[in-house]
Amino acid sequence: QVQLQESGPGLVKPSETLSLTCTVSASSISDGYYWGWIRQPPGKGLEWIGNIYHNGGTYYNPSLKTRVTISVDTSRNQFSLKVGSVTAADTAVYYCARCRGSSYFDYWGQGSLVTVSS
Amino acid sequence: QSVLTQPPSVSAAPGQKVTISCSGSSSNIGDNYVSWYQQLPGTAPKLLIYENNKRPSGIPDRFSGSKSGTSATLGITGLQTGDEADYHCGTWDTSLSAGVFGGGTKLTVL
Questions:
Q1: Which of A80, B29, B54, B71 has the fewest CB atoms within 10 Å of its CB?
Q2: Alpha carbons A58 and A50: distance in angstroms, whole number
Q3: Residue A104 and residue B90: Cβ atoms within 8 Å?
Q4: Looking at chain A, which residue has its C-alpha nearest residue B5?
Q5: Which of A39, A7, A12, A49 is nearest to A24 (CA)?
């Protein structure tokens, strides 16, 4: 069974950089899928952040593109998210997920709550 | 403001049928496959329907999906109290080159 697990700080100060890592098991990052990040602010809907392919090719949400970087480490079977210059509006549960070719997410991590506060 | 539009809430009695709509445009639903996710309280979303109307292994046939033009619909028959959850639609937007979701619909089984 494919499993994904997010890890990273649960509290980030305003103006700093949010960093999360997703560790994948029972599926290789190099298997030909895209890997994505999605977030959900408290009480709100899902927001797609971006996807990355094993060769490093990326797609980003246009509204977040200037602040977001997604990278992949095939040797560790991990991919990572960085969001710069965070504000309270970036407070959310962040999910990593495996993305299939027609843009649906078939496996999800359990989610990681990140709070932006001083 | 989400790119795809869903009703905030729907409700129905146990055993009944309910439908949840997802409205978009020619650059997203009109041009790409739609997927649906079930999110039980306090848990991560779970894939329910992919490529408009296909069910992953383990998803009962009480759940169905359809698409027409720039709208998609999730149907649930034989409602159970365990179906109470938030339901999200998603697709790709060709113009934005980005994934997009609806705002989510809360299903209450009365």
A1: B54
A2: 7
A3: yes
A4: A45
A5: A7
